[in-house]
């Protein structure tokens, strides 16, 4: 089987705010229905690239996630048909700069759409090989395991097929679109010099063979902090944001 490639410039990147039971417990609030935000496609980065934390900021947080890549158009589909529209899954890191979170009021435009803030890959696991309730997501910081969770019914608040079907009720999901399906507990702040790695893995539903996205590797570096206060909001940190990050 020839694997489809990880998309380099999808039409849409859609991210779920909270989807994991462990994350909801960590935050102290459990959503009744999924909610979403969009990330700029220009935020995509490959494995091995660096991510810049602007000088003068402090709350750059990683979020290891399962990324679902759409393979065929999906419009108003039922949940039981959702996986038929998926090309594959891979690893993603939904980085966010909490110093810029408050002015966005939940849209995350400035905090999460910066260049390089959505590393993706390195390999796509074909959807035909995958049980969407049997994926494992792991994240390491400087070699230490900090996130380890799965997509089973006791782990996800909203199953992957429900997320896909729900989104398709509101707009057409097109080939190459990427859905970031939320992060489990363990997300935290990283600093320049840190290396974050994320991997999605599963046993093939067809052969039982271990399948992996490979480790998505990102090194944090310090970047310029030349924000212009005359143009818009500038980074600001509060104790509440420190706790949230």
What would your notes on this structure say?
It contains 4 helices and 17 strands. 11% of the residues lie in helices and 31% in strands. The model has no long low-confidence stretch (mean pLDDT 94). β15 (195-203) and β16 (210-212) form a beta hairpin.
Summarize the structure.
The chain is mainly beta and 245 residues long.
Helix-strand category? mainly beta
Major β-sheet annotation = 6 strands, mixed
Principal-axes shape call? globular
Tell me how many strands there are.
17
Low-confidence stretches: none
Q: Let me know the average pLDDT.
A: 94
Tell me the β content: 25-35%
Span between termini: 41 Å
Note the total helix count: 4
Strand order of the largest sheet: 2-1-13-6-7-10
Helix residue percentage: 10-25%
**CA-atom Rg in angstroms:** 17 Å
Write down the secondary-structure element order. EHEEEEEEEHEEEEHEEEEEH
Task: Indicate the topology.
Elements: E1 13-16, H1 21-27, E2 36-39, E3 44-45, E4 50-54, E5 60-61, E6 64-70, E7 86-93, E8 96-97, H2 109-112, E9 118-119, E10 125-126, E11 136-141, E12 144-150, H3 160-168, E13 178-180, E14 189-190, E15 195-203, E16 210-212, E17 216-223, H4 239-244
Parallel strand pairs: 1-13, 3-9, 4-17
Antiparallel strand pairs: 1-2, 5-8, 5-14, 6-7, 6-13, 7-10, 11-12, 11-15, 15-16, 15-17
């Amino acid at each position: 089987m020839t694997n489809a490639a990880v998309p380099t410039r999808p039409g849409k990147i859609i991210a779920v705010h909270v989807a994991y039971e462990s994350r909801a417990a960590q935050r102290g609030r459990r959503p009744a229905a999924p909610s979403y935000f969009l990330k700029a496609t220009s935020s995509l980065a490959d494995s091995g690239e660096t991510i810049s934390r602007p000088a003068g900021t402090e709350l750059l947080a990683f979020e290891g996630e399962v990324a679902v890549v759409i393979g065929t158009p999906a419009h108003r589909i039922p949940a039981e048909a959702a996986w038929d529209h998926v090309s594959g899954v891979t690893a993603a890191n939904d980085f966010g700069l909490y110093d810029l979170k408050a002015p966005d009021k939940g849209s995350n435009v400035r905090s999460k759409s910066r260049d390089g803030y959505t590393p993706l890959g390195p390999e796509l696991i074909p959807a035909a090989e995958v049980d969407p309730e049997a994926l494992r997501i792991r994240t390491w910081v400087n070699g230490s395991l900090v996130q380890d969770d799965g997509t089973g019914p006791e782990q996800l608040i909203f199953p992957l097929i429900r997320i896909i079907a729900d989104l398709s009720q509101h707009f057409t999901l097109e080939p190459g679109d990427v859905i970031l399906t939320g992060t489990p507990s363990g997300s935290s702040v990283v600093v320049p010099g840190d290396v974050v790695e994320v991997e999605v893995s599963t046993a093939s539903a067809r052969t039982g063979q271990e399948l992996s996205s490979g480790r998505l590797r990102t090194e944090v570096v310090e970047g310029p902090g030349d924000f212009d206060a005359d143009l818009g909001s500038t980074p600001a940190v509060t104790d509440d944001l420190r706790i949230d990050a």
